[in-house]
User: What shape does this take?
Amino acid sequence: MKINYNYIKIIGLLVLVAFLFAFSSIRNSARKVSTPHIKFLGDENLFVTHETVSKLLIQNQEGVANKPKEMIDLNDLESALNANVMIKQAQVFINVDGTLTAEIEQKKPIARVSTNASYYIDDEGSYMPLSTNYASRVPLVTGSIAKNELYNVFQIARKVQSDEFLRNHVTEIHQNENKSIDLKFRLNDFKIQLGSLDKLDKKINNLKAFYQKAMKDGTLNTYSAVNLRFDKQVICTKK
Assistant: This one.
């Protein structure tokens, strides 16, 4: 009987590959996890500290460092991080060398409500509590505000954040009981009456045109109110 050595070589090679794969898998799963590496994405101002994240990276009431990789449930760790009210999104992964990395994207505040309760409104229009670690310099929101009805002030705050002129000047967004909006500027004491959100871009353009002309004329500080509620005109009230 003639022996086919090519078949024997192929079978031997397959057995060797399977052995090496099994050995590598066992060795990899037994590899212990290092101390977690915490990476904050985006803004460096930390509303959440490294210490807080480390405390959230707990499994079965124990830290994850020095545990075998196969015992780490990444989904549980991500869920614990994402449940934190300061965290927008978190991802946790382990490299082949056993390094556990947690990438944290924090919520970003764009306005701060200052009424009988104090909290931020984030860039998605959601509630965000104040942080004991860092205070963000964003416009104040005052007046008649309900935590579950933030749409109007969020739209204005988002407009302020995205517009360089407004971002440099607006310090306060005030919502009246009828939901109309007033603004206050950093260096001027007149009240800017925006009214409703209707034709908001047009109103902002009217405001910029008024401001540039009044600044050129040297009359900015002679007004107590600037009314933008009408589509085709700006009505100013002198002091």
